[in-house]
Structures are given as C-alpha cells and as structure tokens.
Design goal:
By secondary structure, the protein is α+β, with helices and mostly antiparallel strands. It has helices at 8-13, 15-23, 37-43, 61-71, 76-84, 91-109, and strands spanning 49-57, 116-125, 129-134, 140-145, 148-156. The chain folds into two domains: 1-45, no CATH class; 49-156, Ribosomal Protein L22, Chain A. It is flat, with a radius of gyration of 20 Å. It starts with 7 loop residues before the first helix and ends in a 5-residue tail after the last strand.
C-alpha cells in the first residue's frame, strides 16, 4: 500500500495545516502524520536543527546515559566543557558526536553556532554480543558485551546567547 505524494501546488495550499500537524504533540500510542522526505524538504521541516548519530558504540547504554543526562538542555559550549572534563568513558564519542551535529547545523542549515543548544540527546540499547566464559566442572556462563546507539539534536535558542 503506497501513499500518494503531494504535488508542490497541494503542499503550498496546505502548508500551515501540514506543518501544524507535523509539530503537534501526540500521545505515545498515536502515530504522527508522516510526510515523505521530499515533502519535508519542500516545507522546510528539519532545517532548524543539526542532527548526528553514532551506532554500535561498544559501551553499555546505561553508562552513556549518565553523561547524556548532564548535557541535555545545555548550550553547546557548556555541553562541550562538561564532556571535555568528564572522566566518563563515553566522553570522547559524545564530544565527537556534538562536534559533528554542530558542523551539520552550521554547514547544512546555516545556523548560528553560538546560539546552539542540546535539544535532544539519548542513548538506546544496541545489539548485544554474547560470548562464553568456561566455568568449573564443564559449565559455562554468558558474557554480554553490550553496545549502544546515541542520537543528538542541536537547535538554535530563541533568546540571544
């Protein structure tokens, strides 16, 4: 079942309605109105942010979330300072991720780097590699080598930084 992609004329006629429907808050079990990539690009949705993702990071997501909770909602400069002086093992990958998201925001969308803040950052569980550790009397136990995926979204703050 394929969805009809709207023409530019239809998009222009329904512009305000589509943008409002796309940004509307929904309950967790409701599906948001989905637009195709071409429709989002034409309407300019997503041009106000910089995104970056790292996948399959060989680190437990619980350990990564300790650091992501500290920088969520902070300005980009504050977040980079926190990460720079953190002893958490996830600090270096998160610093690279923040730099990448900032570069995407500035180069792709023309945002002001001084006004960027960490709007969203989360670490989710990635695939787990299972290994075996031999034990006494011929038994074996599992070693779970966990990994995580980290997503970050930077947006421009409304007030002057």
């Amino acid at each position: 079942m394929s969805r009809k992609v709207m023409s530019k004329v239809e998009l222009e006629e329904r512009r305000e309605e589509l943008i409002a429907a796309h940004k509307a808050e929904t309950r967790r079990n409701q599906k948001t109105a989905s637009l195709s990539k071409k429709e989002r690009k034409y309407l300019g949705i997503g041009r106000d942010e910089g995104r970056a993702t790292v996948r399959h990071l060989r680190m437990n997501s619980k350990k990564v979330n300790l650091l992501t909770g500290l920088i969520r909602g902070k300005s980009l400069q504050d977040a980079l300072a926190i990460v720079e002086y953190s002893s958490n093992a996830a600090a270096q990958p998160i610093k690279k991720l923040l730099d990448s998201a900032a570069a995407n925001a500035v180069n792709n969308n023309g945002l002001n780097p001084e006004r960027l803040y960490v709007a969203e950052i989360n670490a989710t569980e990635g695939p787990t590699m299972k290994r075996i550790r031999p034990r006494a009397k011929g038994a074996a136990s599992w070693i779970l080598k966990r990994s995580s995926h980290i997503n970050v979204v930077l947006r421009e703050s409304e007030e002057e930084a």
